[in-house]
UniProtKB/TrEMBL annotation:
Residues 177-222 form the Hda lid domain. Residues 28-85 form the Chromosomal replication initiator protein DnaA ATPAse domain. SUPFAM superfamilies: P-loop containing nucleoside triphosphate hydrolases. Gene3D superfamilies: 1.10.8.60, P-loop containing nucleotide triphosphate hydrolases. This is Chromosomal replication initiator DnaA. Signal peptide: none annotated. It holds the Pfam family Bac_DnaA.
Length: 237
């Protein structure tokens, strides 16, 4: 993925997608997504060939797969991926223009609301589809521009929920595998039992353990986890 100038034009191809500030790039494909009841409704909406007015808003807590679903949908539908936090209004009066389907991550916190409104208007006029993702639904997000607020509150929404136990176990193993971390079964089972029952806690824990193990050049053990994750782990027994 490459970054684009704010005033540049782009088609809906991978070469035109805006880079996300990810530490490591993983293949966010449909095949690698972990299905579960907590994301079944979202997957059903994404599988539809049409949405009301061509727009869909996907929301849910951090760590529940929203960016993965958005990226996979964008790949399958030749959509341009943008991070709404990076939107800005050019001093020269230019703005982002996109041809084709569009996927907007962090849509509940746009850097420039006018840019987002223009993108939605362009997509509607062109008959393109727009998938947006954020932690909150439009009804609970704050937008200064009345036109943008009303447009988004009229958008169909679907949500991802916190992972159930089976999905949490699979997610923990997948996060470790994505970072090529070899952790004993006893430690992974211990982590699963003592980490909060949220996707975000698993993501945060694996990131911290990976950084600590890399810096110290040592394996991930229960002792390392107790040292690095005191605010996340529940007490023993």
């Amino acid at each position: 993925m490459t970054k684009r100038d704010a005033g540049g034009a782009a088609g809906g191809h991978a070469s035109a997608q805006m880079a996300f500030p990810l530490r490591r790039v993983t293949a966010m494909t449909s095949e690698r997504f972990i299905n579960g009841p907590s994301n079944a409704a979202a997957r059903a909406w994404l599988a539809r060939s049409q949405w009301p007015d061509g727009r869909l808003w996907l929301w849910g807590p951090s760590g529940t797969g929203k960016t993965h679903l958005l990226t996979a949908w964008a790949h399958e539908h030749d959509a341009t991926v943008l991070d709404a936090r990076l939107f800005s209004r050019s001093s020269a009066g230019g703005r982002i223009r996109v041809q084709g389907n569009l996927a907007i991550d962090n849509a509940d916190s746009p850097g420039d609301e006018a840019t987002m409104l223009h993108l939605l208007n362009d997509a509607f006029a062109q008959g393109d589809r727009v998938l947006m993702a954020g932690q909150l639904p439009p009804s609970r997000s704050h937008f200064m521009l009345p036109d943008l607020a009303s447009r988004l509150r009229a958008t169909a929404t679907t949500a991802t929920g916190e992972p159930e136990d089976d999905l949490r176990a699979t997610l923990l193993l997948s996060l470790l595998a994505d970072r090529q971390l070899v952790v004993s079964q006893s430690v992974t089972e211990w982590l699963w039992r003592h980490l909060p029952r949220t996707g975000n806690a698993l993501v945060s824990a694996v990131e911290r353990l990976d950084e600590a193990a890399l810096a110290r050049k040592q394996p991930i053990t229960r002792a390392l986890a107790m040292e690095m994750l005191p605010d996340l782990l529940t007490p023993e027994g």
